[in-house]
Design goal:
single chain, 312 residues, alpha/beta, Nucleotidyltransferase, domain 5, five-stranded mixed β-sheet, four-stranded mixed β-sheet, 10 helices, 35% helix, elongated
């Protein structure tokens, strides 16, 4: 008799993680591949990426009884349904659950307890659960309408500042030279060409975010202000805008006990969400991701998958 197993998938915009485990939490294997935001990537990319991950992880598909995926781009119902069907085709014996990527991240960070999670990666979102178990979110609107304080936002502000400095009306900054090295040219036209020709300008701009941290560490005042704005309720597309950063838009979560921070940009922003007292009560340690191998110790889709496997 085959031993039942489960699959957990974290399908983000930057990368996709797949974990294969037993119901007792013993990790069998894991694999990582390219991001498959289901709102922006075509279904063919989902298919290729998932097939590659399942093959590289050596998954015995006949044994999989639960497959839980947290998907970036979940808010589009037609794409969500297509993604769910694709997973069901690849894992016909499994109960398939597709959830928002922020929901599985919150579960992994807080273990189901009241709290708030601020995710600052290529994009940004804040979500929380109160003592009554109600799930709330703020942000996650994508780069056209939001993503304040994210890697994309920080990188975009850096390029905008450097362009203004190059034109002579903006403040001089170390970011000019740093961006010239990154793009391989001091010609700002080359920067624009690279950004407007790529199919994924968000990721390219997010790769510029560490430059802002580096410039700030060297005492560049403009870089310091970008990071401060990115981590404050006033984060926005311009200095005269006052739309609150995602965490500042959450209603008060009575009984909240921690604020967890995750995502590739969390080290760049000094205080993601500004630690708004109106949004949360208390502050805990930052969430830590899974370590490689061993047993599932908390985090992301694996927690939801484990819970579901006990009821299957």
């Amino acid at each position: 008799m085959l031993t039942p197993t489960l699959i957990a998938i974290d399908a983000g915009g930057t990368k996709t993680d797949l974990l294969w485990a037993q119901p007792d939490g013993q990790v069998l294997s894991r694999a990582e591949g390219q991001g498959i935001n289901i709102a922006s990537k075509p279904p063919g990319v989902w298919d290729e990426t998932l097939e590659d991950l399942l093959e590289r992880a050596g998954v015995n598909r006949e044994t999989v009884r639960v497959a839980c995926a947290g998907a970036a781009g979940y808010t589009l119902p037609d794409r969500r349904a297509m993604f769910e069907r694709l997973l069901q085709e690849k894992l016909p014996q499994a109960r398939v659950l597709v959830l928002p990527d922020y929901a599985i991240a919150l579960e992994g960070a807080t273990g189901g307890a009241p709290g708030v999670l601020v995710i600052a990666g290529t994009g940004s979102i804040a979500c929380g659960r109160d003592r009554e178990g109600r799930l709330m979110r703020a942000g996650g609107w994508g780069y056209l309408l939001g993503d304040e304080g994210s890697g994309f936002w920080i990188g975009r502000e850096a390029v905008r500042a450097a362009l203004a400095a190059a034109e002579g009306w903006g403040e001089q900054t170390l970011l000019q030279e740093m961006l010239a090295n990154t793009f391989g040219s001091a010609d700002c036209g080359e920067w624009l060409s690279a950004l407007y020709r790529t199919h994924n300008p968000q990721s390219l701009l997010a790769q510029c975010a560490p430059l802002v941290s580096g410039a700030a560490e060297q005492g560049d005042p403009l870089a310091e202000r970008i990071l401060t704005r990115g981590g404050s309720p006033g984060a926005s597309g311009g200095a005269d805008c006052h739309a609150p950063a995602p965490a500042g838009r959450l209603p008060r979560l009575h009984g909240g006990r921690s604020v967890e921070i995750a995502g590739g940009a969390d080290g760049a922003v000094p205080s993601a969400g500004g630690g708004e007292p109106s949004a949360v009560e208390g502050r805990g340690e930052a969430a830590s991701p899974h370590s490689g191998g061993g047993r599932v110790t908390g985090g992301d889709a694996a927690d939801v998958g484990l819970a579901c496997s006990k009821n299957t």
